[in-house]
Amino acid sequence: MTPKSGLLLLLSSVAAIACVGSIFELSSGVPQLGQINTTIILALSIPLSIVSFVLAVMDARANLK
Fold first, then answer.
1. Looking at residue 33, what DSSP letter applies?
2. Dist. CA 17–CA 13, nearest whole Å
3. Four-point Cα dihedral 28, 24, 26, 50, nearest 10
4. Which member of 13, 48, 53, 55 has the lowest number of beta carbons within 10 Å of its beta carbon?
5. Rounded to whole angstroms, how far apart are CA atoms 65 and 22?
6. pLDDT of residue 2
7. Residue burial 30-54, b: 16+ Cβ < 10 Å; e: rest
């Protein structure tokens, strides 16, 4: 594992935590940051977590050889 793949995994983890937190905030009925801001965070964190995870795996596999 390289530092680049480690940072991408960290980014993926933080984005996934933001995604789960946003879902809980929206399901509570009254999000602390507001409905629109929490929805934006949710909408951005889902693809960010997926893309950064895929890039981390691709980088780790490329550096195995």
1. T
2. 6
3. -170
4. 13
5. 39
6. 87
7. ebeeeeeebeebbeebbebbeebbe
Q: Give per-residue pLDDT as tens, 5-14.
A: 999 999 999 9
Q: What is the pLDDT of residue 58?
A: 95
Cβ(8)–Cβ(59) below 8 Å = yes
Cα 16 from Cα 30, distance rounded (Å)? 21
Enter the tokens of residue 57: 């795996």
Contacts of 15 (CB under 8 A, 6+ apart): 45, 46, 48, 49, 52
